Amino acid sequence: MDEQQHHQLVGLAAVTVAAVLEQAYFSLQVISARRKFRVSPPCTSGPPQFERVFRAQVNCSEYFPLFIAILWTSGVFFSQGASCVCGAAYVMARLCYFQGYAESPQQRLRALYVSAGFLWLLIGFSCVGILLSFWRLAGRLQLLNYVA
């Protein structure tokens, strides 16, 4: 990979690293809550305060693979800039979701809807980018058939 290709991917890589660090932070919060509320692994139930932190971390982890896959698909096929902005906003919204859920289940809802909106935007960008790539490919194939 040459230097130009690195520059083309640096934004996506930065958002990915930020999201990975966020996941690590969420895991550390569960460890801290386990100690604070004396909930030993593998138990996943305990005081409501612990369960909220645990559920918030699990919920964020469940969406993480989907987010990473769609972030990169959107960035490669649609626009790295738009994808990075949406990806960074998604990461921030998930942090707000986690913090809100740790306080009370109702406080997670706004951030949940915001993060879902950014995820759907990335999905839309990905679909548009892939569709345009197919159209360009089909156009090239038709041109090759015409020339041949």
Automatic annotation (TrEMBL):
<dbReference type="GO" id="GO:0004602">
    <property type="term" value="F:glutathione peroxidase activity"/>
</dbReference>
<comment type="pathway">
    <text>Lipid metabolism; leukotriene C4 biosynthesis.</text>
</comment>
<keyword id="KW-0456">Lyase</keyword>
<keyword id="KW-0256">Endoplasmic reticulum</keyword>
<dbReference type="GO" id="GO:0019370">
    <property type="term" value="P:leukotriene biosynthetic process"/>
</dbReference>
<dbReference type="InterPro" id="IPR018295">
    <property type="entry name" value="FLAP/GST2/LTC4S_CS"/>
</dbReference>
<keyword id="KW-1133">Transmembrane helix</keyword>
<keyword id="KW-0434">Leukotriene biosynthesis</keyword>
<dbReference type="GO" id="GO:0005789">
    <property type="term" value="C:endoplasmic reticulum membrane"/>
</dbReference>
<dbReference type="GO" id="GO:0004364">
    <property type="term" value="F:glutathione transferase activity"/>
</dbReference>
<dbReference type="InterPro" id="IPR050997">
    <property type="entry name" value="MAPEG"/>
</dbReference>
<feature type="transmembrane region" description="Helical">
    <location>
        <begin position="111"/>
        <end position="135"/>
    </location>
</feature>
<keyword id="KW-0472">Membrane</keyword>
<comment type="similarity">
    <text>Belongs to the MAPEG family.</text>
</comment>
<protein>
    <recommendedName>
        <fullName>Leukotriene C4 synthase</fullName>
        <ecNumber>4.4.1.20</ecNumber>
    </recommendedName>
</protein>
<comment type="function">
    <text>Catalyzes the conjugation of leukotriene A4 with reduced glutathione (GSH) to form leukotriene C4 with high specificity. Can also catalyze the transfer of a glutathionyl group from glutathione (GSH) to 13(S),14(S)-epoxy-docosahexaenoic acid to form maresin conjugate in tissue regeneration 1 (MCTR1), a bioactive lipid mediator that possess potent anti-inflammatory and proresolving actions.</text>
</comment>
<feature type="transmembrane region" description="Helical">
    <location>
        <begin position="63"/>
        <end position="91"/>
    </location>
</feature>
<dbReference type="InterPro" id="IPR001129">
    <property type="entry name" value="Membr-assoc_MAPEG"/>
</dbReference>
<dbReference type="GO" id="GO:0004464">
    <property type="term" value="F:leukotriene-C4 synthase activity"/>
</dbReference>
<dbReference type="Pfam" id="PF01124">
    <property type="entry name" value="MAPEG"/>
</dbReference>
<keyword id="KW-0812">Transmembrane</keyword>
<comment type="subunit">
    <text>Homotrimer. Interacts with ALOX5AP and ALOX5.</text>
</comment>
<dbReference type="GO" id="GO:0008047">
    <property type="term" value="F:enzyme activator activity"/>
</dbReference>
<dbReference type="InterPro" id="IPR023352">
    <property type="entry name" value="MAPEG-like_dom_sf"/>
</dbReference>
<dbReference type="InterPro" id="IPR001446">
    <property type="entry name" value="5_LipOase_AP"/>
</dbReference>
<keyword id="KW-0808">Transferase</keyword>
<keyword id="KW-0597">Phosphoprotein</keyword>
<dbReference type="GO" id="GO:0005640">
    <property type="term" value="C:nuclear outer membrane"/>
</dbReference>
<feature type="transmembrane region" description="Helical">
    <location>
        <begin position="6"/>
        <end position="28"/>
    </location>
</feature>
<keyword id="KW-0539">Nucleus</keyword>
